[in-house]
Design a protein that fits this description.
Layout (H helix, E strand, L loop, with lengths): L33 E3 L11 H13 L2 E5 L5 H15 L3 H5 L10 E3 L3 E2 L2 E2 L3 E6 L4 E4 L9 E4 L10 H26 L17 E7 L11 E4 L5 E6 L5 E4 L6 E3 L7 E5 L1 H6 L9 E3 L7 E8 L6 E2 L17 E2 H13 L15
Parallel strand pairs: 1-2
Antiparallel strand pairs: 2-14, 3-6, 4-5, 6-9, 7-8, 9-16, 10-15, 11-14, 11-16, 12-13, 12-15, 17-18
Helix pairs in contact: 1-4, 2-4
Bound molecules: 2-oxoglutaric acid (AKG) and fe (ii) ion.
Family: Belongs to the iron/ascorbate-dependent oxidoreductase family.
Pfam families: 2OG-FeII_Oxy, DIOX_N
GO molecular function: dioxygenase activity; metal ion binding
Amino acid sequence: MGRLDEAFIQAPEHRPITHLTNSGDFIFSDEIPTIDLSSLQDPNYDKTTIATEVGKACERWGFFQVINHGLPLDLRRRVENTAAEFFNLTAEEKRRLRRDEVNPMGYHDEEHTKNVRDWKEIFDFFLQDPTIVPATPEPEDTDKRELTNQWPQHPADFREICQEYAREVEKLAFKILELISISLGLPGDLLSGYFQEQTSILRFNHYPPCPNPELALGVGRHKDGGALTVLAQDSVGGLQVGRRSDGEWIPVKPIPDALIINIGNCMQVWTNDKYWSAEHRVVVNTSKERFSVPFFFFPSHETNIEPLEELLSEENPPCYKKCNWGKFFVSRNRSDFKKLEVEDIQIDHFKA
Ligand SMILES: O=C(O)CCC(=O)C(=O)O
Ligand SMILES: [Fe+2]
């Protein structure tokens, strides 16, 4: 990416405060909960204990890490290696897989978050190929569009490894979804129906070293749109979470082999603001490149997102109006593709 041109520069109030030691390493915080999922492997185990822990973390932080999560570690290593190999291809080779106006999947190095360019390059693919979405964000337009993946020829086993990882991370996402439902006092399978046809995406993020990490961000502050995100990060660090209680930016400590789970907008709406979709961002540094692999667990395009009836009462009336996920998805994809002069769509726009 080389030079930091103007498009990357954050407004002064959004420039990163990095927590660095004297030797230039990040200082991390232990505040964000870590939850051990090992007892899920015992089919006779009562899930309510873990579900309660998950619920508390969703409420206070909207973020937690999981250990002993059952995702095979050798597969994770293979994914990390193949992603690094992919980003090592020449710019020309990567740009052959460039995403465009019609198809948002593939390679992209010009993503903007809140209209400022991110210091990163990415590769995206859908779990379901093809994935059906609305043709346009216009509410009246009922046309649909089929979106497909694009794959590189090298590394040779790239596609196979990606798809194997996607299947495993999806299994974990369904387990977390079940724990969240239980934590709300609801049947464990209440939400899973929304994901039979899904619009989920797996992404590889590569953050190269940045000459001016005090001015730019790897990803600008944002909330994830979907139900939840399962994120694998390497040991470099840089992810920061806005604390629910006061908005303070808290750096997330890399724990070897752990996965980070965060709540997205859909879950915040379903739970009528009980669970929190936290703002987060990524800071970069001058010397170390960083890789991360988020899995965005997105429902089917037909899903209408609104507070779950089971959780509403006279004392807890709905805080949101109904929003169609497909339209939200398409609108977001359009606005982060181009640097538009308008703010991209947010759940707050659906506040009742
Ligand atoms: O790289 C990370 O740690 C987080 C990336 C992220 O928030 C995103 O891709 O939505
Ligand atoms: Fe994110």
